[in-house]
Structure formats: C-alpha cells, structure tokens
Design brief:
This protein is α/β, with parallel strands linked by helices and 285 residues long. It has one domain: 3-Layer(aba) Sandwich (Rossmann fold), CATH 3.40.50. It contains nine helices and nine strands. It has a seven-stranded parallel β-sheet with strand order 3-2-1-4-6-7-9, with helices on both faces. It has a two-stranded parallel ribbon with strand order 5-8. It is globular, with a radius of gyration of 20 Å. The N and C termini lie far apart (51 Å).
Length: 285
C-alpha cells in the first residue's frame, strides 16, 4: 500500500478519538506523512481547532457507541476520499479501582466504548477494505492488555478483549490481503491519567488500600511524568503502517517490553510447576 493512490494521497487513515491525546498526534503524523485523514471524535469542531483546515483532513462527529453514526462516518470517508486504507481504533478511556470497587454502570460504560465501540467501527470499515482486498486495522490496546494489575482490572479486561479480537481478525483478514495489529503502549505522557480520560471508582474499600489504593496514589504522582514520548509513538505508528509485513502485536515503550518479559517468564514457570496435573486430564492413551 505504499504507492500514491489515485486521489493523490499516500493512504487514507480513519482515526477514532482524534480530537486530543494520542489520537490527535497520530492524525498529525499521518497528515505530515502525506496521507489523508478522517479524524473522528465526539466534537468535530474540537478536531478542526486542533488539526486545522486541510484538503487532506475530514473531521467527523462520531460517538463510537452509536452504530448508525459509525456507518455514516465511514460512508462520509468513502464519499470524500474513495477508500479507507488504515483504521486506527483509538477511542477509549480507563477506570481505576479494585474490581469489587468498580460499579456495574462504570464497567458497562467502559465496555461500550473500548470494546463494543471498537466493534462498531471495525464492522463498518471492513466491507470497504474487503472490497479493496487491502487495508490495515490497528487496535490500540495497552500494556494492560497483555498483563493485568491491581487497580486496573476492569480496564485491563477491556484491553484483553481487544487483544483477543485482534488475534482473530489477524487470522480472518490475512487471506483477504488485510493486516491486523494490536498496539500495546506502556505509560506515555498524555492526559490518560486525567479525569478527562480516567474514571476513578468512588466507593473505596479499605481492604484494598495496599493494592488498588496504592496504585491510585501512584497514579497521581505519575500523571504527566510518564516515561513514554507520545510524539515518538505517533511516529512509530507511521512506521508500522509503512512496514511491508506488520506484526500482530507491537509493544511500545520499554516498560511494556519489561512487563511482557516478566509475564512470559511467570507463565512459563507456573506452567512447568503444574504441568503434571495439567496433562493428567487427557483421556488415557
């Protein structure tokens, strides 16, 4: 997909959650690379204010939890640019609290955006990519999509779902000439830990003070002091899309690499410890 398309742009990107944070930075990097960008968010005016006016930019108002809006936004993209080459499912938010502290309403609202919203957009875009027999679906996960942790259990569960969906998409879409990648950022210096992106469980249970409570306190200190550079992440996304054979998984940040290595080592050790019992459940040969 490296050739300039007939519309004069390198590729056409469709990015959700593009009004601020990583979504806006990815949109800026894609535009600077000569791509057209359909920048989707709840407030199209905020997108225009952040990204400016350009023939290569189509701001669209989109609530990813609304399936009819998803279909309309995809149709608007095709009407303007003729195709969609890259889908970046970036819209989402977090929830900080122990699993027991996380209310049904908060968890369902998060799933509506992080999982069901992602599915709405993906189902709307895939018919376009299948007709092209080309495209790249990129789902933004997290270090928490590979390794869960106290205080972020409900949030991590949404990202575990994104990982599972992407693995299946990778297998289903590869024969059709379409790539699927799940991106796993660690802690990047964005507003993710602000109230605009992270809900905090209100019902605090004292028994979890040493676990989720400690994470809650650390999050305050870490906010806007995270080790990852968001502009470098945006640049990495362009490099990912340019890769001739993109990976199924792309961890971003040394903290994610460390977390993956530690989890893999733990799983290997635990599997070896319990392998006799695990294997004993087969029918006798």
């Amino acid at each position: 997909m490296s050739d300039i398309q007939s519309n004069g742009f390198k590729r056409v990107w469709f990015i959700t959650g593009a009004s601020r944070g990583l979504g806006a930075l990815i949109a800026q990097a894609a535009l600077a690379d000569g791509n057209a960008v359909v920048a989707a968010g709840r407030n199209a005016d905020a997108i225009r204010e952040r990204l400016g006016d350009s023939p290569a930019l189509l701001p669209v108002a989109l609530d990813v939890t609304n399936e009819s809006q998803a279909k309309a936004a995809v149709q608007a993209a095709v009407d303007k640019f003729g195709r969609i080459d890259v889908l970046i499912n970036n819209a989402g938010f977090g929830l900080l609290g122990a699993v027991e502290e996380s209310t049904d309403a908060d968890v369902r609202r998060m799933y509506d955006t992080n999982v069901f919203g992602l599915l709405n957009i993906t189902r709307a875009v895939l018919p376009v990519m299948r007709a092209q027999r080309a495209g790249h679906v990129v789902n933004m996960s997290s270090v928490g999509g590979y390794r869960s942790a106290a205080g972020f259990g409900a949030y991590c569960s949404t990202k575990f779902a994104v990982e599972g969906l992407t693995e299946a998409l990778h297998a289903e879409l590869k024969p059709l000439g379409i790539h699927a990648t799940v991106v796993e950022p660690g802690y990047f210096r964005t507003d993710f830990l602000d109230a605009s992106s992270l809900a905090i469980a209100k019902d605090i249970i004292a028994d979890y003070d040493d676990t989720s409570g400690n994470v809650r306190r650390r999050a305050v200190d870490m906010n806007h002091n995270q080790p990852g550079d968001p502009e470098k992440l945006a640049s990495a996304m362009v490099q990912l899309i340019d890769a001739p054979t993109p990976p199924l998984r792309l961890p971003l940040g040394s903290d994610t690499l460390k977390a993956i290595a530690e989890k893999n080592a733990f799983v290997t050790q635990e599997t070896q410890t319990w392998q006799t019992l695990s294997a004993s459940t087969d029918f006798a040969a």
